Amino acid sequence: MTTLEPRSDAPHRVLPGYYNNLQGSFDHAWAMMVRGAVDRRAAFHTPAVATVDAAGEPSQRVMVLRAADPVARTLRLHTDVRSQKFVHIGRQPRVSVLFYDAHAKLQIRIGARARLHTGDDIARAAWAASRPQGRLCYEQALAPGEAVDAPLPVLPADQRFAVADDGERNFAVLMATVDRVEWLYLAIEGHRRALWTWGDAAGWQGTWLAP
Ligand SMILES: Cc1cc2nc3c(=O)[nH]c(=O)nc-3n(C[C@H](O)[C@H](O)[C@H](O)COP(=O)(O)O)c2cc1C
Which residues line ligand 1 (CB under 6 A)? Predict the structure, then answer.
């Protein structure tokens, strides 16, 4: 998988096996996203997700990546039906998802078409698998982003993880079907940049880009 190529002038520096390998870079990009979904400490756990509002303004926010599936080409994220991003995607389903891992020296920019799931099998399964702590924000009576007169009171410890019944009504799965993967690997030996686009007939087509 990763063959390591020592540099002649820097014996401790190794380049990853995907450095000059287009398919290897693509596989590594997906492996990073798959790991990001399961490893809460991974930088890829919290990408920035961009939507477009009714006025055509771009809007970004950090979200938790819940699952990445290279075969289905999907990224799964969770959100609140009362949020701005839910409204944006309802109008205009194109999203951009940006990952950056400083340690891995890797940026990945995803282009995808989002689908919002509420009250269906996908939403029910994701809600059933979510933790009480994660459910808490969906149980707030105030919609996310609603103006309030003052900061909300500090919750007593015994109420912080209390589960109300109606959180599921506010819960949505954002399933993004990926059709564009743009990859940038930073290396002093020479950056590497590549783009893969999905076509229903051709599948994934990749090319190196000038960095
Ligand atoms: C580390 C981190 C993780 C977050 N994860 C999520 C998430 O998984 N889903 C979500 O809807 N908002 C998440 N948020 C909050 C969003 O960034 C955003 O503030 C909120 O959803 C409102 O966004 P909107 O008004 O653009 O819809 C997270 C924020 C941070 C800082």
Answer: 46, 59, 61-64, 77-80, 83-85, 144-145
Q: What is the pLDDT of residue 92?
A: 98
Q: Which residues pair with 117 in a beta bridge?
A: 173
Q: What single-letter DSSP state applies at residue 158?
A: G
Residue whose Cα lies nearest atom 10 of ligand 1: it is 79
d(CA 14, CA 189): 11
Only one residue has tokens 């999203």, namely 95
Task: Tell me the per-residue pLDDT of 60-80, one tens digit each, with 9 for 90 and over.
Answer: 999 999 999 999 999 999 999
How remote is the CA of residue 39 from the centroid of ligand 1, in Å?
18
Which residues, in sequence order, are bridge partners of residue 58?
Answer: 52
Give this prediction's pTM: 0.91
The pairing of strands 171-185 and 192-199 is: antiparallel
Residues 6+ apart with CB under 8 A from 21: none
What is the rounded distance in angstroms from the CA atom of residue 115 to the CA atom of residue 94? Answer: 9
| Topology of the domain covering 5-143+160-209 | Pnp Oxidase; Chain A (2.30.110)
